[in-house]
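subagent[fold] <- orchestrator: predict structure for attached chain, return tokens only, no commentary.
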Amino acid sequence: MPCLFTCGRMITAGDEDAIRQVPAEAWKPSTAQDGTPETDKDVAEITGLMTRAENWPGGLRWIARRVKPSRHLRNLTDKVLRQAAGDGRIGMDELDKRLDAVYAAKTFAELKPVTKDLPSHGTVTETERADLARFGGVAASPGVFAFWGGFSRKGAWVVPPKFSARAIMGGGELDLRDARFTERITVIRAVAVMGGIVITVPDDVEVQVTGAGVMGGFVHPAFERSPGAPVIIIKGLAFWGGVNIKRRDQRDERDQAE
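subagent[fold] -> orchestrator:
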């Protein structure tokens, strides 16, 4: 049965423990809601592994989705390893072993330890080093939904390549300043019906807004992208409501708190 609605939230330590308990054979290829195969994603049910499952309404299921490392991240990790071998930090046998791990990795969590003990410098650029810290990870869900209520996604969370945010007679916020991105280009479809959505983005990203307003609108400033930064495309509809895109530096909130 296809998933008609999803409810996103921050992944907790308990969630991560549950995901680690999922046997390899339980992961199945993911499909989009229209039935299109998603070759870069796998899904598995973890309802029975969750400590909160007994408190949930009957029939509610928890499905975890993991995003495979992109070709860009694999190639970048390959470059870091070959640079380390050229500098004498690792031997050729170790290089072969780690390269095998790079191309066998099914999640970013499996890819990250391969270069954990290696400094990134030399022919590896500042942009490439930033990529390792900013891109990759496992997205918790493909979207959020609020009806007569609200949603909030902020802090350290992982944004999938396509993310849906819908608020009907309610409101929500998406804060991307501390988020990781699974891909360099992210498409967010924001729909606000008699409600509002606030999207806060880092000050170095490129934002393209193509949403339409009917007795409502999309509010956004001009954006200039820094080299290597993510590209965020925001589409959707504001009907008797609004979608407000804000650009803030990560220091803004801390400065105001002080």
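orchestrator: received. Logging for downstream: Helices lie at 13-20, 71-86, 92-104, 108-111, 126-134, 251-257. The two ends are 50 Å apart (CA to CA).
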